[in-house]
Amino acid sequence: MTPNRFVMALALALPVGIAAHAAGAEDKAIEVMVAARSAMGGSKLEAVKSISATGEYRRLMGDREINGEATIEIIVPDKIKRTEEMGIQGGPTMSRTVVLDGTEYWEDTTNRGGNFMRFGGPGGPGGPGGQGPSEADRERFRQMAQRRLQGELQRYLLAWLARTDAQMTYGGEAEAEDGKADVIDVKSEGGAPIRIFFDQKTHLPLMLTYEGPQPRMMMVRRPGGAPGGNATPPPDPEEMRRRMAEPPKIVTFEVRFSDFKDVNGVMLPHQMSQSVEGKPTEEWTVSQFKVNPNLKPESFTKKDKS
Question: 22-298 in CATH: which number?
Fold first, then answer.
């Protein structure tokens, strides 16, 4: 996909005009969800116990574009593993795995190259001349990362499998030039509210929106610099800690779904795009979905607890 098409695919906003219906909001929500589950696979959807998706993605972080491959693995109802291989053209590369195993969260990151990337963490170059994050910083950011992944799991279960244990209410009808959508508001205890839009003709999910902390990326230099002497100067440690200690800005995310294909009787979106505050940030093209792959629960368990 060309860069212009990438932007267009993400920037086409769905004009929303919500006409809320107070009476029977929960009953109407259930009616819409039943229709969606039927359209998305019916009994085949009910039989899904695990699912995985792999594909190429493009991510915009400020003036940088990151390309890579992402794999999502899920065991219903409470296990998710996201593995990303990413890099910046002419710059560093990184492999990152984040896992939620029930109530336990862990991650593993491997960087290659003179500079490396940190996403949403406390940062702070350790070693001579720099002070790393405190234990309180580490725990705070670990909890934030765990909440983000819990929200991600909830959204995938909702958009891919039309499953949720949260309270649902009918949010009204949204109109766009190409048709209408039914809106369902989903609110779980302790979780961020989700609004999901289902096409009134196909009953497939078109989009979901939610609010969350704005993603942050920082470039940090490894000791010795990058090959060829083109290292990016590291940020001042105190300034870095101050920036990361600031409360994250809460923004609105929009995630759109398209290019639905039948995978073992389940209709799944092979094109997903995201915008933040109306600006395109990410596009993921799934090359392969697997329904009920043989995922081992132990593969979600962190081997080294040290």
Answer: 2.50.20
